[in-house]
Structures are given as structure tokens and as C-alpha cells.
Description:
Layout: H1 3-33, H2 37-50, H3 55-67, H4 71-84, H5 89-101, H6 105-117, H7 123-135, H8 139-152, H9 157-169, H10 173-186, H11 191-203, H12 207-220, H13 225-237, H14 241-254, H15 259-271, H16 275-280
Helix pairs in contact: 1-2, 2-3, 3-4, 3-5, 4-5, 5-6, 5-7, 6-7, 7-8, 7-9, 8-9, 9-10, 10-11, 11-12, 12-13, 13-14, 13-15, 14-15
Amino acid sequence: xxxxxxxxxxxxxxxxxxxxxxxxxxxxxxxxxxxxxxxxxxxxxxxxxxxxxxxxxxxxxxxxxxxxxxxxxxxxxxxxxxxxxxxxxxxxxxxxxxxxxxxxxxxxxxxxxxxxxxxxxxxxxxxxxxxxxxxxxxxxxxxxxxxxxxxxxxxxxxxxxxxxxxxxxxxxxxxxxxxxxxxxxxxxxxxxxxxxxxxxxxxxxxxxxxxxxxxxxxxxxxxxxxxxxxxxxxxxxxxxxxxxxxxxxxxxxxxxxxxxxxxxxxxxxxxxxxxxxxxxxx
Length: 282
């Protein structure tokens, strides 16, 4: 075999390995966005096995670990991502959020500050700096960055969601709803947008609108107890307590340790004067 053929074979194998890693990463993102964090981690594991220098796969696996309350794993993954790419702002953000959860406040702030120092170029970069500014309480700066992210990529769903979250923090509820609606227009199965928009509608006492959003989230993913719990609350506020109890039951079936679901189911039984069930918690 001559050197040219050997080189071409190596190049082909390397390219195929890279594409396999990318395929697994993209599949992992899809599962992550559907709240299947364990499934996402399994795909990110495959991506990392195929390409051990994939900083973004480590970062996203860290994010999934954080959401599964595996904080040690989250920090380890983000640290590895940063070792591979010291300018990966999102990894600093996720590690900072995890450290803040563990009450390591000073170290968390240092991670957020490091993220802000990284000069953004892409739409995702502006997202990351916006996140860091948000956690550093620079709300107006965060909104500016999310808006720049959208200007670069008008289909950046996360930018609309993050900007909506920030507007909600400022109690600009109608503007937040508009951003969540835009996210849904881009991604019709965006669970985070449906649930968050429903929560704001509920806050504004638009309970029917909230129920519609929670029902859509349940249609997309029927295995998340939070959506049933939120819909149960909205139904209870409308005095549809029998239906609310059904939702609280479902939330409890999915998560038997869902204390808020037990408490609110008790309130619904009390409202219906079913004191026996209210007292027994059955």
C-alpha cells in the first residue's frame, strides 16, 4: 500500500468517526430537549467515546447530569470541557450554576466572570455570555446579549427562551409570552416554552390558556410529572377540582416523592368536602 492510499484510508476513518460522534451528539440534544436526560447522557457517552476531545459533548453531558442532580458528575464534565477548550463559555456557566447549587458561591461567581470575559462571536456565544450576565445580576446586559444572538440567528430557540426568562424576571410578562410564543413557532415541540408560557399565563390568571399549554407539553412528553402538577393547579384554580385530582394523581404516580402534588391534592379533596381523603392523603 502506497503512502497516499494509506493517508486516504486514515482520513476516511477519521472523518467517519467524527460523523458518528456528531450523530450521537445531535441525537443526545434531541433527547435532552425532550427531558430524557438519561437517554441524552447515553448518547453523549457514545459521542465522547468516538471523539474524546469533543468539548461540547462533555458540556452537555454535564448539563444533563446537573438536571439529574449528579452535581459531582456535572462539575467533572464541565471541567473536562474547559480543559479541552478554555474559551468554552457555556461550560463555565454550567459549572458555575452547579457550584452555586452546592453553595460554593465565590467559585461560582468566578466561573460566571470568566464566561463574560470570553469575547462572543457566534449566536451561541452571545447566549452563553447572556447567561453569565444573568447570573451576575446584569439583567439588561443579558437581554442585550440574547437580542444579539437572535440578530445573528433568528431561529435560535434558546435565545428566545433565555430572553423570555429574563423578561419574566423583570415582570415584563406579556413580552416574555411573546418570546416563548416565538420559540414555539420555531420549534413546535419546545417543552420548555410551552410549560414556561403556561406558568406565566397562570400567574396572569389566564387559567384556560395555561391548561392548553400544559396539555400540549403533556402531549409531547407524558412522562414529566411537573406538567401534570401545573395543569392540576390551573384546574383547581378554575374549581375543576375533580380533574385537578386526576392530574395530581398522575404527577404522584410519576414521582411518588412529589410533596407539592400530595399537598395540593389534599386541598382539592378539602374543596370537594371529601374530608376522609384529605385527612388520609389517599
